[in-house]
Amino acid sequence: MLAFLVSGVVVLLTTGSIGDTLKTYRAIFRGAGLNWFFAVGSHSIGLPFSDARVWFPWNTDDITSQAASNLEQTLLLWTALVLTGLAVAFAFRCGLFNIGGNGQYLSGAIAAVLISTELPKVVNLPGLLLIIVSILGAMLAGAALAGIAGLLKGTVGAHEVITTIMLNWIVVWVGSYLFNVGGPLQTSGGAGAVPSSSDVPDKAHLHTFWGDPLLQGLHIGFFISIAALVVYSLVLNRTTLGYEVRAVGHNPEAARYGGINVPRNYFLAMAIAGLFAGLAGSLDILGWQYRVDITTIQGTNIGFIGIAVALLGRNTAVGVGLSALLFAALQTGTASRNLDPTIFAPGVGGSLAVIIQGLVVLFVGADVLILVMLGWLRRGRSRKAPA
Amino acid sequence: MAIPWGSRGLGFAAIAIGVCAALVALPPVGTRSPALPIAIGLLAIALGLAFWLVRGERRIGGYAIAAGIVGLLIGYFATRSSTTKLDTVVVWGTLFAAMLRYATPLAFAALGGLFSERSGVVNIGLEGMMLMGAFFAVWGSDVTGSWVLGVLIALAAGALTGLLHAVFSISLRSDQIVGGTAINFLALGITSYLFFKLYGSQGSPSELSTIPDVHLSFLGHGFIGDVFGKLNLMIWVAIALVFVTWIVVFKTPIGLRIRACGEHPRAADTVGIDVYAVRYGAVILSGILAGAGGAFLSIGFGNSFTENMTAGRGFIALAALIFGGWRPFGTAAACLLFGFSSALGVNLQAYSTSISTLFTALPYLLTLVAVAGVIGRTIPPAADGIPYKKQ
User: What's the whole-model pTM score?
Assistant: First the structure.
C-alpha cells in the first residue's frame, strides 16, 4: 500500500494534479481488464466436457471486447507469475534467495521448445503425451539449473545469490547463441523477423478455453498454476520434506542438530523451486508463445517480478496467488498497448510498474520500518506530553 | 616479505607458460604447427599439477592448470584457422585498449562494491547504482552543458542511491540482498520513467558534452602507443583508483576500521568505532563509485543513454569482486580478464556472430567455477551481509 502511495506521489510530482494521479490508476485498472468484472449481468457459461450451459454473472462469450482481452492477458501473466513467485517462495522457506527464476524459466522454455519440436521427428506421440513429456522435460531443466546452485550451496557453501545470478546470464547467452542469427537452432525465418526457434507443432499447443489462441487467449495452464498453488501449500505444510525445508529455513544449525541433512534440503529446495519456474516457462511456450525468440531470452524479467510476488505474498500459497494477480494486473495495465495514450505517453507506464515493484520489494523487506515509525509516533507524543 | 620467486615463483611461471601456449600460435609469432602449443600447454599443466601436489597451494596451481588448458586450446585452434582472420581478430594494441575500455565501468563498480562489502554490507544494487549514474550523467551533461557537472551529478545520484541502500540495510536492518534487489528495480524504473518523460521518443540529446580522451601522442604508434595513446580520462582515473583503494583499505586507519566492521562489527564497536557511520560511509562511497562507472558508460564510452543500458554490468562487477577475492588488485585483474573477454568476443565476430555470443557467457561461467571452489575457495568478509544491531 505504501508503495502505491509513494508511486502516486511520483506521478503527482510529474503530472502536477491529484486528478491526474487518480486517472492514472484508473487507466491502469482498465488496462488490466479488471473493469470486466463490473459488467455484471445475466449470462451463461458452458460446463466443461458437456454442451450444458449454466447461469454465470459475467459474459464469457465476449472474447473480443477490450476489457475481456485485457483480462485474458492479465490472467495469462498471472499463470506464469504464480509459478515464478512460488519458485522464489519455496527457496525462501528454506532460507535461500532464488534470484535465478529468470534462468530457470528460460531453460524451461527452451527445453519445452526443443522437446515439442524435436521429439515428433523421432517418435510420433499423440498430442497429450507430447505435451506431458515437454512439460516434464521443462520442469527437469529448470530443476537441474537451480539444483546446481543448491548443490554448490550445500557442498562448498557458495552463496546461492551469486550462483543463480551467474546461471541466469549463462542461460541468457547460451540461449542467445542457440537461437540468434546463425545459431544452431535458429529457424531460417523471413528477413527482419526476430530470430527465434522453430514453432511448436499445433498438437502440442495447450487448449485455449477463453479468447483467441492467436491473440493471447487464456489457456488451460491457468488451472495448472492453481493446482501448483495447492501442491505448494500441501508439500510445505503436510509432508516431511516440507517440514525439513522449513526447519532448515528457520535455523540451519538447529536443523542439523536435530538430525536433518541440511545440504540435501538446500539441493531439494532449489530443485523444487526450479521445477516451478521451469513449469512456468513451458506453459508460456505451449500456451501462447509457441516459440522462443531472442527478445524473450534477453528481455524477460518474469523471474525478478517473481521475487516481488513472493515477498509481497509472504511466501504463502494464498499470498502468492493474490500478489501475482496484483503484479499481473499492474504489468498488463501499464503495457503501452493497453494504456490510454492521452493519459500516459507510451513507455512511461511500464517504468512506473517497475518503480512500484521496486518500492514493494524495498518496503516489504524492511519489517523494522514499521517499528521505527511507531517509535517516531511514540517519541513525538511523549515529547508533547510534558509540555 | 620474500620475493615470490622462491615460494610461489614456480606457480606463476607455470601460469605464464600456459599463456605462452596460446601466444606462440598467435601473431606476431604465429607458428603454424599445432605440436608447439600443445607441448607448451601440457608443460604448463604438468607444472601446475606438480605445484599443486607438492606445495599444496591449490589456488595458484589450479590457475596454472587452467591457463595451460585454455592456452593449449586457443593455440591449437589458432593454428587451424586462417592467418588473415587471425590478423583481423588479434591486433594486440586495439585489443588491449578495448580491454581497458570494457574493464573501466566494471572496475569502478567493483571497487565500490569492495568498500561496501569490506564494511559488511552486501551490495547487489551495484547494477542499479550504475544505471542511475549513467542516466544522470547524460541528464546533467545535457542540462548544464558541461561533462564535469554531468559527472558530478552522476556521482550525487549514485551517492543518493547508496544512501537509500544504507538506510534500509543498516538503520532498518532489512535483508541486504532484498534491499539491493529493490534498488535495482527502482533504478531501472526511475531512469526509464525519467528518460521517457524528459526525452520522450527522440532518445538522448544529440549534442552532449562527453568526457574527453587523453591524447598522449609522444607514445608514438607502437604497441604502447596503441594501447595508452588515446584513452578516456575516466580510464586513467580507474587505474589510479585501484591503487588508491589498495592504499586506503590496507594501509590507512580508515581502511582498518572498514575491514574491522566487515569482519567483526561487535569487536569494532567495543574499541569505539562507530559501525553505523563506517558502514554508511562505505555504502555511499560504493554508490558514488558505481555512479562514476555508469557515467563512464553513458558519456565516456559512448554519448547516449538507453533504457537499461548497464545490461548486467553491475552483476559482472560483483562477479569480478568475488573472483578477485575482495582485494583491489585481484578485483582489478578480474575486471581486466572480463574486459579482455568482452573485447575478444567483439573481435571474434570475424569468425561468426554466434560464437562471439557464446563467448559472452564466459565471464559468468568463470565466476561460477571460482565460487564453486574448484580453483581455491573464495572467502568473503566474515560479517558480510549480516545487519549489525547496536547494544
Answer: 0.80
